[in-house]
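Model it.
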Amino acid sequence: MKAKPRGSRYREFAIRSALSLFCVFAAGCSHVAKTGPQAGLGGADAQGQISEIYHRGDRGPRDPAKAAELEKAAEQGNAAAQYDIGLAYFRGDGVPKDAAKAAEWWEKAAEQGNAAAQHDLGFAYYRGEGVPRDAAKAAKWWEKAAEQGNAWAQHDLGLAYYRGDGVPRDAVKAAEWWEKAAKQGNARAQYNLGLAYFRGDGVPKDAAKAAEWWEKVAEQGNATAQRNLGLMYDGGLGVPQDAAMAAGWFGKAAENGDAQAQCMLGLYYAMGKGVPPDPVRALMWLDLAGSAGAKEADEPTKMLRSAMSRDQIAEAERIASEWRATHRGDAK
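Modeled.
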């Protein structure tokens, strides 16, 4: 019997046949939403990271003369100047870099009630920068700043309570402080509060509230929250099941370099789920996901390649290469 030529109609059939098996892999990826999305901004092993210095670049002197003027004001007891000269010493901005002097000036300002100084002094104690590491002192200063409404201190104190780092572990207090910071727009607190609601950790389990808080973070461009929202819409957890919405959030996260979202988006394109079927786009995203470390993309990638023409594969590789060239260093 003569072999059937691999023409366009046959190739379409072969692709559709191969892609029918992708439901298994898609279900495996979607299971993440049922067992728990990734924890924390910046890592799966903890709910976020302690914030860095409160002001990141818009304050402090830019030359030695201004630093000298600022230090003179600080010596006269001006709390704002004490905070700012501490920031200058911490960064080496107009003065030699000196974490110990930074901590000294922050302590003077903190004792006068300067909330930013209280937060950053807590940071210094937490990191052991310029002072001996002391998580209890870090939490003490964060609490003083948090009670004044400093959102970063509220986030960091919540994280300390969640971890039991410098204070007794207390998931309820962690969620309470995160909620205060989240309502001020702090993205890390919003993410962590969403995770607390998703898990029922310190608050009643509530997938709808988890999705609500994650959406606030996702709208600020956080790839992990965007991917988690995609998984929520994919599984109908806390939100109506909606493949188009899921694809939209996977797309945002994928563009931001999230490998698991790239895998899911590739599978969506493969199946025509929430987006028009497009094997070239499917292979492009699966290839990017695999190269970024998403092992779940490996088998679907092999199956898809076996059913595609050389021209289709070449086109997928071309647009994947273009994507990498324009997103160097952007992966999250």
